[in-house]
């Protein structure tokens, strides 16, 4: 039996009532958003004949997602994070702002408060025995193209098992392992030593994995390194680089890969480079310059408070 009740006047009146549109108090913005979203979901239930069992399965899944702390994980999996980036790009296009270093999604695994140092940092603590040494460096440029001394480069990545410190299910990593803030030197340069990360996979058996499986999708990301880059008088840049050669670069469940964010990885085996970096064996080297963009009417028009909320 197929019925359609969405367009009935009593249904439409009900949507206004449950969204608080008959009330003088509350937030007009929240009311408008809830009215639109619940209307869209009512319409979906009506048009697709969603059964009570399907509906309550979805409610139970939402509880599971929240209990697992994975709302921020299924969000990029369903493309919301990338869609928001595409909107920010479109706003910049409309304003005539070029982003020489593309933005891409933050993801859910940043932790504020990493140790800070000037010009150089070692990110890993040396305990990941499978790690291949990485040296990465570059110059942070301002919107005028000149180097930006004092720019802050926050960097974080996972280990060779794909686990991030603070989110390591084995509890093995020390706090802030593979997380640092580097202040660019007087020439705007940053440099760090770490290890090449592996790709990331959503937790096995998780509600995130369950939904992706129902979509016939995997929950894997190519190896990547995250950055926030900030400086006075510039907008904060959120981005990532992918490790060149990873087979999943164009098959990222979180849709973060972008042209311009896959720098070359050079394997260095010559003694001069090895000694020049105080290492004792071959290492991988990535050179990656970063360009920040100007404030808009004196403000960062695209910053969000996700990090501050995450710390609170
Ligand atoms: C990650 O490491 C990540 O960067 C994103 C976007 C989602 C899940 C795990
Ligand atoms: Fe990540």
UniProtKB/TrEMBL annotation:
Q: What cofactor does this chain's UniProt record say it requires?
A: Fe(3+)
Q: What is its EC number?
A: 1.13.11.1
Residues covered by the Intradiol ring-cleavage dioxygenases domain: 136-164
Q: Annotated Gene Ontology MF terms?
A: catechol 1,2-dioxygenase activity; ferric iron binding
- What reactions does this protein catalyze? catechol + O2 = cis,cis-muconate + 2 H(+)
SUPFAM superfamilies from the entry?
Answer: Aromatic compound dioxygenase
Matching entries from InterPro entries are given as: Catechol_dOase_N, Cchol_dOase_prob, Intradiol_dOase_C, Intradiol_dOase_core, Intradiol_RC_Dioxygenase
Name the keywords, alphabetized: Aromatic hydrocarbons catabolism, Dioxygenase, Iron, Metal-binding, Oxidoreductase
State the Gene Ontology BP annotations.
beta-ketoadipate pathway; catechol-containing compound catabolic process
Q: Name one Pfam family in it.
A: Dioxygenase_C
Which CDD domains does the record match to this protein? 1_2-CTD
> Under which pathway is this protein filed?
Aromatic compound metabolism; beta-ketoadipate pathway; 5-oxo-4,5-dihydro-2-furylacetate from catechol: step 1/3
Identify its protein family.
Answer: Belongs to the intradiol ring-cleavage dioxygenase family.
The name of this protein is: catechol 1,2-dioxygenase
Give the source species.
Paracoccus alcaliphilus
């Amino acid at each position: 039996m197929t019925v359609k009740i969405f367009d009935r006047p009593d249904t439409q009146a009900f949507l206004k009532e449950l969204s608080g549109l008959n009330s003088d108090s509350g937030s007009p913005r929240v009311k408008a958003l809830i009215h639109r979203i619940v209307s869209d979901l009512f319409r979906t239930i009506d048009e697709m004949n969603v059964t009570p069992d399907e509906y309550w399965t979805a409610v139970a899944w939402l509880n599971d997602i929240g209990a697992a702390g994975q709302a921020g994980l299924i969000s990029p999996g369903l493309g919301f994070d990338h869609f928001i980036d595409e909107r920010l790009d479109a706003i910049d296009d409309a304003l005539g702002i070029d982003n020489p270093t593309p933005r891409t999604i933050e993801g859910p695994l940043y932790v504020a408060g990493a140790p800070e140092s000037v010009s150089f940092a070692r990110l890993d603590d040396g305990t990941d025995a499978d790690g291949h040494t990485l040296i990465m460096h570059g110059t942070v440029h301002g919107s005028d193209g000149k180097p930006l001394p004092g720019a802050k480069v926050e960097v974080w990545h996972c280990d060779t098992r794909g686990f991030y410190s603070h989110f390591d299910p084995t509890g093995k990593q020390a706090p802030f392992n593979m997380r640092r803030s580097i202040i660019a030197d007087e020439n705007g340069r940053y440099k760090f030593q770490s290890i090449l990360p592996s790709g990331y996979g959503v937790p096995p058996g998780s509600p995130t994995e369950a939904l992706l499986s129902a979509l016939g999708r995997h929950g894997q990301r190519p190896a990547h390194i995250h950055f926030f880059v900030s400086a006075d008088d510039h907008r904060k840049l959120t981005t990532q680089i992918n490790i060149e050669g990873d087979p999943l670069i164009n098959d990222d469940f979180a849709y973060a890969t972008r042209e311009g964010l896959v720098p070359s990885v050079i394997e260095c085996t010559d003694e001069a480079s090895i000694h020049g970096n105080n290492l004792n064996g071959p290492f991988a080297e990535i050179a990656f310059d970063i360009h920040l963009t100007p404030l808009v009417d004196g403000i960062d028009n695209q910053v969000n408070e996700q990090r501050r909320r995450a710390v609170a």
